[in-house]
Amino acid sequence: MTRARQDRLLGLLARDGDWATAATLADALGVTPRSIRSYVTAVNARVATGIAIESGPQGYRAGPDASAALRSNGSMDASTPRDRLHLLVRALLDSPDGVDVFETADSLHVSSATLDADLARVRGLLGGTELTLERSASRARLRGTEMAQRRLLSRLAHDEMDAGSFDLEALRRTLGDASVGARAFGPFKTELAAELGALGYFVNEYGIADVVMHIAIAADRVAQHRALDADAGEASPANAEVAAILRRLVGRDLGVELGSAELQHLASLVLTRVVAPGATAPKMHVRERLDPEVEGAVRDIVAEAASEFLVDIVHDDFILRLALHVQNLRLRAREQAWSRNPLTRSLKSTYPMIFEVAVFIANGLHERLGIPLLDDEIAYIAMHVGGRLERSRRADQLLTATIVCPGYYELHELLRSSVDRSLGQAIEVTGVETRVDPDWSSIDTDLVLTTIDPGAAVPGDRIVRIQPFLTDGDIERVQAAAGRIRRGRRLARLRAELERYFEPSAFVRGLDASGEDDIIRRLGSMLVERGVIDDDYVERAIQREHLSSTAFTDALAVPHALGMTATRTAIAVGIADPSIPWGEGRVQVVALVAFSETDREAFQTVFEQLVEVFSERESVQRIVRRGTDFAAFLDELVAVVDG
């Protein structure tokens, strides 16, 4: 039984909030239902006086103490391989002269052979850190710069966190219970954010905890006489301004005096991870700070993305803000100082189209500016894209509505005013009927909000009874009806598109865990045989998969190539029962989608709505269990779409 799988089980339940059967959870984790029951027992044992996971006739769901159970890791005691690995790395980092292998094995209560295996795992952990592990007789030591060692500490701390979140206990487990850095949270973070805001900066709350962690690591290392020895050089005015704040707060709250090299480094992290210039920021005009090369690259790539995906993102303010973010990203890439994003997983599963646009932009940045791709950094680009699209939503996306309210003084006017005020984000009132006997058949708006009974002769879910004086219950019913209409229309479009694009002869049941590349090639070969795509498209789909996993839900992967070069749009489907590994998770359905340029407008419908259908666990299980061949698969999928 592994701690990681227990945490993943708890994370799945906490994220969804609904009941899930043991069989469904077992599929998601790639274990047996019996293991799920064991995991539930172990997770509940973490909160002796509470309930982390509830059990019932419908299965399991997250309990009131789920969050506490996720955080209740306690102190590391070498009882698990991961804890032992972290303890060993921390010992190596704390000992410039290295550690004695046999003494360390005794202290961890393991054999020397086990510790040798752990040291091999340490070597695997050092990839990309510019550190090396040296072994001489009975001593092992790390070789590398102080900055590289801090990066390793940062990696350990992130490994202790769930989905990019951060907490004090994770930091203590990484740095040690007596660490100076363990006191870096609370007032320090609040005061830092307040002082940065007072300078006119917008503060990125998603990144500030990550930077405070680096400040905590720096304070801890300096307290151990392990300061940076690099030449500080001349700081920019903005860097000097932030450094002065850090010097004062760290000295007052943590009791540590940081040197100029430390302060410049940390101020640079703040400026590239946490803040963006606000309207009142002194001497911080965005264009003045931008490298023309970065701005030009971002402008070109955004234009390409807008054309490729038919999205409205070519706006100067969006391009400038994104370019500033990319410039900071390039600086972070040079120092391997990546920012974690706690919203990465939810952005990918909830807004797959927006995330796909971000992947396209990130790939262009990689090709033009040489910036590496990480899912967390792609998620920040997705947040920029989503913010721009939210601002540019067209008014015609609102549902239209007619109010039926027989005239009595200004009653109908008051009702319309109330509807506009309470529901203006969801519907647009285009007409008001004040007759007591309106011609119901002539009302053609999406919704009819009526204060009188339309009678049995007027069918349809678009009729919503409301009171002359709008109540909270009325608002909820209208919102629910609007939601049903939108979902119905989306799924109706999806059904038509899926029936058109699924390739009946490109269906495989019984995918094995041969790896993403082999599965993409297997599904792609069937579309190649039918002349839909060529081998180059298949290889580009594999390249796209390497950029960022296309497992957009806990059950579905949608591999595809960047670039809509298929002769026609077609979908090849593979089903795995039980689930197979894909990226960092597991899936049961793989839909290789080949898009053609002539069907560019269908991309968003197929892509987003397919992900929506397979985000519901019960629907997935129904489709997977009953979809024994293509005809049965399509029947079940259509049945799920139709509700």
UniProtKB/TrEMBL annotation:
Specify the PRD domain's residue ranges: 289-395
* Start and end residues of each PTS EIIA type-2 domain: 500-643
Q: Which UniProt keywords apply?
A: Repeat
Protein's UniProt name: BglG family transcription antiterminator
Q: What organism, scientifically named, is this protein from?
A: Microbacterium alkaliflavum
**Lineage of this protein's species?**
Bacteria, Bacillati, Actinomycetota, Actinomycetes, Micrococcales
